[in-house]
Amino acid sequence: MEVSTIGLDLAKNVFQVHGADAAGAVVFRKQLRRSKVREFFARQPACLVAMEACASAHYWAREIGKLGHTVRLIPPAYVKPFVKRQKNDAADAEAICEAAQRPTMRFVAVKSEEQQASAVVFRARDLLVRQRTQTINALRGHLAEYGLVVARGPAHTTKLIERVEAPSSDLPEAGRLALDMLVDTLRSLEQRIKCLDVEIARRAREDEDARRLATIPGVGPVTAAALVALALAAAIFKRGRDFAAWLGLTPLERSTGGKQRLGKTSKMGERTLRRLLIIGASAVVRHAARRGVPEGSWLGRMLTRKPRMLVIVALANKLARIVWALLAKGGVYRAPAMVG
Predict the structure, then answer these.
(1) CB–CB of 7/78 below 8 Å?
(2) How many domains does the chain divide into?
(3) Which of 15, 34, 250, 333 pairs with 214 at a CA distance of 20 to 30 A?
(4) pLDDT digits over 7-63, tens only?
């Protein structure tokens, strides 16, 4: 029997492979040390190699693809239903192989090294922002123990630092030592975040797609650069709604018996992009609340009938569809206002 599909269960050191022929019959099951993976696939005839889209998957997809194989990455949630009873590496590899042979299976596009490098910039920035938030909260909590209360939010970090460094403050010396360390950490995080913001802004200026996306109300340089770096190719999606669903901006559906039942927003997709689009939509809604919107516009009608947060999420969905249209069809956003 000639192998046509290989399921590869990735690991740190010991990998599991499962080979099947065109009919799905098992050809081989075996374990591979990490150092033997390339050698093994170099000996195999060109076939379909499937893996779960997890850590190191894109690296191995590129390496195995160089050997002449067709590589497919499958979301782990789509592999799980094919696992039979007990979960182990062999069962996982078999499930990956079976999932890859399904004609309606959805796959994840393999990212290039440059695409992954762009994604690292945003992942690193998110990490630093979270650490900054943790440090600010720690400073606020510790100072509150001494009756020094400061409002929440990064905008008030200067007051936090002033309370710690003020010579007139009654902070104990032992506590001041620890608080000074937190202040130094906060300043270092602020500097590093600014450095990454400069890099993101540079990428947004130099990339043509990012410049076009930045013409959409609610999509700034950071969001535009993130969409270019993290979003899948527009050609993968048939319509804007599919792209919005991939971002997790569509409602959960529990329809049955011909009755449509829609729930809350799914939040199943790319978290970073979803968050940025919701932040951008929130800014548009705040601007509309201050300046007003054209009478009869989509946003105006929604604000009069629906809760504010629901309108923000609906607008983020609308922004996602506009983003897909610009990426798929070209051009820039020409409408003077966010209207229906």
Answers:
(1) no
(2) 3
(3) 250
(4) 999 998 999 999 999 998 999 999 999 999 999 999 999 999 999 998 899 999 999
